[in-house]
Design goal:
This protein has 401 residues and is mainly alpha-helical. It has 16 helices and two strands.
Length: 401
Amino acid sequence: MLILDSIQTLACGGLFLLVGYAIRRHVPLLMRFSIPAPVIGGLLVALFMLACRHWDVTPIRFDTAWQQPLMIAFFTGIGFNASASLLKVGGRQILLFLALASVLAVVQNLLGIAMAKAFGLPPLFGVITGSVTLTGGPATGMAFAPLFEKVGVHGAQSVALANAMAGIVLGSIFGSPIAAMLIERHGLRPASATTAGADTPAPMAATAPEQRTVDPAYGGLKSLVYMLLAMGIGAWIGDGLGRLGVTLPSYIGAMLVGAIIRNIDDRLGWFGLSTRAMELIGNTALSLFLVVALMDLHLWDLAGLALPLLANLAVQSILVLAFCCWPLLQLMGRDYDAAVMASGFTGFMLGTTANAVACMSSLTERYGPAPRAFLVAPVVGAFLIDFTNAIIITGFVNAWH
């Protein structure tokens, strides 16, 4: 048996991450459904390990020590992107859209718990197949999986992956048709053709201007140092809350510290943060985290759970689509932009923000631009919902554990 240490495991993950990108480029269906490259590469290894298990062979053992810090780095990057100035751009629309998404995340968990009980499964199984993996996507699912394992959900990582991946596919399938149906049924059209070209997702464009430096490497280094600082302080916060008996995922403290630093910088300009550098570091950490986590995934843990997962996904999909028809369409203005937002809402409440943007783009190519939708939906789906969803998940874990 080949035993890889943490660095070798990370290197192997990086290699299969590149393989995932290569496969996605050559398989249009994977690109169409916005399947993340790390998931493709990591699943190849997981499927190989599953096949080897059939013959009672364990060819490789991974040391996933880097998985935790990479996951925390990604969510810290989300914290650094949570600028209060973004809320001023979309104002009431962003807050309302976030509130609707948060309410639905709660309902997803309640519905998941009901479905889990119907199949004789632990209530928290319904939470991990609810907002953890549908609203949160694969990153949140894999991040929370160890916590759910500790509180009694066997095979939580495998369940999280399966549910998140199915959600991504369903979000891609349903996102555009539900909005097209609303547009045609209510005769909705773009308010003006003069906004053409404004329908590109630009949540980060609304952030505070970056501080430019002469040496580009210095900006990246500074961003990395601030991220590590936030992770270190966040670890102290997490330890303190843990001693008080509060169950929180390990990244919450770092994400909050990152958000505080970001908003201080927006207001006072003390740190000169680079949004692009933070995004690059966070996205790189996410890709490596996912591929390493998936390589060590035990897919055999899914045996016997296919029917509960499929039944839950069917009911959850109906819930999201019904929510888009009413009340989301009504409360967001019952106009063309609201219908396009419904498409994005379906995309990220079942899958990821990438699904949301892809669904909205296909609609605007057909019907015309929807600038308000492309401001509101990506801002909420990209990071604001991660804050409220983490609070919701933590509340359910503490209530049902």
